[in-house]
Amino acid sequence: MKSHRITLLGSQDRILQDWLCSHPESHERGAIVLFRRLARIVNDQEISDRFLAVDVIKMTGDWVIQSSEAHLQINMRKMTQVYFRCENEGLELGFAHSHPVRYLSFSLTDEANEQNILKGISGCNGKNLFLVAMLLCDGRWSARIRWGIDPEIVLPVRHICVVSERIKLHGITAPEESTETLKRQEAAFGKPFNTMLQSRNCFEYLPASVSPSLFQYLYFNSLLPRYFSANSYFRLSFL
Ligand SMILES: [Zn+2]
Question: From ligand 1's centre to the CA of 188, what distance in Å?
Fold first, then answer.
C-alpha cells in the first residue's frame, strides 16, 4: 500500500507542540492543520503524496465542548468554516490532538472521530479529499491519513518531517534488517547511527553533518524529503 509523507515547518511544529501540551490541567487539546497536497510522480520512485502544512488553527474557546486528560469533544458546527476554506483554497483538512496521558497510539474514539470529520467534510466538499490525523504524545508525532472515497481504510504515513535549521523525522518504522546489514551500516556510518535508526520513532540531524554517503542512504531509503535534490539539500546546510 502506498504511504504518504507529511511536512511541517519548524515554526508550525512549535506552535502546535506549545498549544497541544499547555493545558493548565493537562487536558487533551486539538488543532486544525491545513495542508497542500503534492501528488507528483517521480521517475523510479513509488507514488507517495506529500502533505505540506500551510496553516494551523488552534481549537480555542467554543471549539471545545468538553475535555479531560483522556478525551476531547469538539464543536463540529465550527468545522463548516474550515470545510469552506478547504474547498475555496484547494487544501486538505488535518486534525491534530494530544494524548497527555502518554497513550502512544490512536484510540478507538479517535477512529470514530476521524470518520465523523471525514463524513462531515465529504458531505460538503465531495468524497475526493483526504483527512490527515496527527497525534502528539510525549513530544513525538504519529499520523495516518484517510481518503473520503474509502473512509474506513487507514493510509499509512511514511514519516512526519519537521523542517527548520535541523530536519526532524517522526513516525518512522524501522525495517527488519539483518545483522549483516547492520554491520555494514555500522562500518560506514558508525555505531551511533545504527542506534539512532533502531530506536527511531523520531530522530533529527543537522544537514551540515550529513556526509554524501549518509545522504545517499537516507535518500534511497526515503528518509529525506524527496523534493530536496542532493544539491539543494547541501545548499540548505549553509543556511
Ligand atoms: Zn486521541
Answer: 40
